[in-house]
């Protein structure tokens, strides 16, 4: 056993048998393991920030002594697991290693990923007899560009793209490994101690070296272009901070790389630009330059309303042109969402101008993290003009399908209320959260209240609430279990009526001043939260889609 690693043969989560450690960095340890349930090899990433924790000879984790460092450890682990949830929702996206499972154990956390047969891009380049042309390099990393675009839409940045974190499979396809959300947290907290082990020399742009650097999609774009530079020239780019003092980056053409002057100018001035404002703002913008055959001419817009409508139409047309199948799945469909635009882009600005012009009400408020935000209320006609579903998370089941299933189970819910909600929230991080949904309220003869919210355009369920007003606990929990069984048949044996009533304490307790208690379940498809208040008979069960009630396309810079 190497220093700090789990011993070979260690079993995790009662199913994963550790074969050996295959890598260790400043932030975590990677293992090859056997999934004894699925009978296949997997890769497991263990949360292990070396500056905070250690292991004794018995293999037990040694946590920091100070409460301040323990809190840093817990916050880093929280980000580690949040990253896992986001990546798990991108399960079907090519170009990203698949996350199969994630869990907490041994006072730390683990992410289980598919075992990719292949070699790192670093090893691949070392075996190449000649370097890439610009077009060949673009073609090889195009799946990574497509994947990065989807990752950025989820509000996540990779922050560590380099040839060591790109895997070339046996068939030549390439995938991204090792995201760094929690890694970035430690860099923010203790830059002096962590900078040398958490920032990749040659691939990290200046903003990753700077305290409170302005990071966004452009940060990953620099790293990807730096990787492409090495693919073409055989040389790693100079350190970006050294480049700011004296730029010693040679043009690819100086190495006789096959690249046109136009391509080289775009690549150097917009891909490897040192200043954030000079770099591409989004992967899509970069791809339109690198793959000009995919560009589409945009018609001139006569006013803001037509501008927003043409953006929506182009988004749908572009998806159809490249053959995306529009459907809702665990990985979130490729259908464009209202508000899912890159911050600072022309589409972002035009959409918000349109919202502000046609809003019927405006409310300023403070988010839980202390940032100021604004909520705009729209009318139905304005939302119809936008003609795109909101970016609120949703189940695959539609509301009418759920109500039909409930009636088949013998329940007779009566509709007691109906409301349409059309809101756009501009958050402190520059995120745009759109919520276009219909809320139906029902009550059964047994005294159980049912609230169903569903997306205005797709009719897909976004939220379900059961309220035990006058019914019995047995009826209440049985109805909840049967709803889950109708939505996810494979969970009906796992989440039974008794299981719902007993719950699991997987959600953090509220602050002591609150009398609200929370427990529940969490699976790859659904969050089930059972809430009750001390001294109050009324209890509530809430069902959220995987990923939480909302999916914010914000970039956390």
How would you describe this structure to a colleague?
Helix 1 runs antiparallel to helix 4. Helix content is 32%, strand content 23%. It has 15 helices and 20 strands. It folds into three domains: 104 residues, Phosphorylase Kinase, domain 1 (2-Layer Sandwich), CATH 3.30.200.20; 173 residues, Transferase(Phosphotransferase), domain 1 (Orthogonal Bundle), CATH 1.10.510; 129 residues, no CATH class. With 557 residues, it is an alpha+beta fold. Strand 18 and strand 19 form a beta hairpin. InterPro entries: Kinase-like_dom_sf, Prot_kinase_dom, Protein_kinase_ATP_BS. This is non-specific serine/threonine protein kinase. GO terms for molecular function: ATP binding; protein serine/threonine kinase activity. It comes from Fusibacillus kribbianus. Keywords: ATP-binding, Kinase, Membrane, Nucleotide-binding, Serine/threonine-protein kinase, Transferase, Transmembrane, Transmembrane helix.
């Amino acid at each position: 056993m190497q220093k700090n690693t789990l011993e070979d043969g260690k079993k995790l989560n009662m199913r994963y048998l550790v074969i050996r450690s295959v890598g260790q960095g400043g932030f975590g340890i990677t293992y090859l393991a056997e999934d004894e349930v699925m009978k296949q090899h997997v890769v497991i990433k263990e949360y292990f920030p070396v500056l905070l924790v250690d292991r004794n000879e018995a293999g037990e984790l040694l946590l920091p002594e100070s409460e301040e460092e323990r809190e840093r450890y817990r916050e880093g682990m929280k980000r580690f697991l949040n990253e896992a949830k986001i990546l798990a929702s991108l399960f079907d996206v090519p170009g990203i290693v698949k996350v199969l499972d994630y869990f907490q154990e041994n006072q730390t956390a683990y992410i289980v990923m598919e075992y990719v047969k292949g070699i790192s891009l670093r090893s691949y380049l070392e075996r190449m007899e000649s370097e890439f042309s610009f077009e060949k390099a673009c073609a090889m990393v195009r799946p990574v560009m497509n994947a990065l675009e989807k990752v950025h839409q989820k509000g996540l940045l990779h922050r560590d793209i380099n040839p060591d974190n790109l895997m070339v499979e046996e068939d030549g396809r390439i995938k991204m490994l090792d995201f760094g959300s929690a890694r970035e947290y430690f860099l923010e907290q203790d830059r002096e101690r962590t900078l040398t082990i958490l920032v990749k020399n040659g691939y990290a742009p200046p903003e990753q070296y700077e305290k409170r650097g302005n990071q966004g999609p452009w940060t990953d774009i620099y790293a990807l272009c730096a990787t492409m530079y090495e693919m073409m020239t055989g040389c790693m780019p100079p350190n970006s901070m050294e480049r700011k003092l004296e730029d010693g980056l040679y043009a690819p053409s100086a190495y006789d790389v096959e690249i046109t002057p136009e391509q080289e100018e775009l690549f150097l001035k917009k891909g490897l630009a040192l200043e954030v404002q000079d770099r591409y703002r989004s992967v899509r913008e970069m791809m339109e330059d690198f793959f000009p055959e995919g560009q589409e001419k945009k018609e001139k817009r006569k006013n803001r309303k037509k501008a927003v409508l043409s953006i929506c139409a182009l988004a749908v047309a572009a998806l159809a042109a490249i053959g995306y199948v529009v459907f809702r799945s665990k990985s979130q469909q490729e259908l464009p969402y209202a508000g899912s635009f890159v911050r600072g882009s022309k589409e972002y600005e035009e959409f918000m101008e349109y919202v502000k012009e046609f809003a019927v009400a405006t409310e300023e408020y403070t988010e839980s993290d202390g940032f100021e935000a604004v909520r705009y209320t729209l009318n139905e006609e304005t939302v119809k003009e936008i003609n795109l579903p909101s970016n609120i998370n949703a189940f695959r089941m539609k509301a009418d399908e759920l109500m039909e299933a409930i009636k088949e189970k013998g329940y007779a819910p009566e509709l007691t209320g109906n409301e349409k909600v059309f809101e756009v929230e501009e958050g402190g991080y520059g995120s745009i959260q759109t919520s276009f949904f219909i809320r139906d309220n029902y009550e059964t003869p047994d005294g159980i209240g049912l609230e169903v919210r569903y997306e205005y355009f797709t009719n897909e369920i976004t939220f379900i609430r059961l309220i035990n007003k006058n019914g019995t606990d047995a009826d209440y929990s049985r109805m909840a279990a049967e709803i889950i069984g109708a939505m996810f048949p494979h969970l009906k044996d796992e989440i039974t009526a008794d299981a719902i009533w007993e719950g699991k304490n997987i959600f953090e307790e509220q602050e002591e001043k609150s009398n609200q208690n929370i427990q529940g379940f969490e699976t790859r498809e659904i969050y089930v939260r059972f809430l009750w208040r001390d001294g109050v008979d009324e209890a509530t069960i809430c069902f959220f889609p995987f990923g939480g009630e909302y999916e914010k396309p914000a970039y956390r810079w």
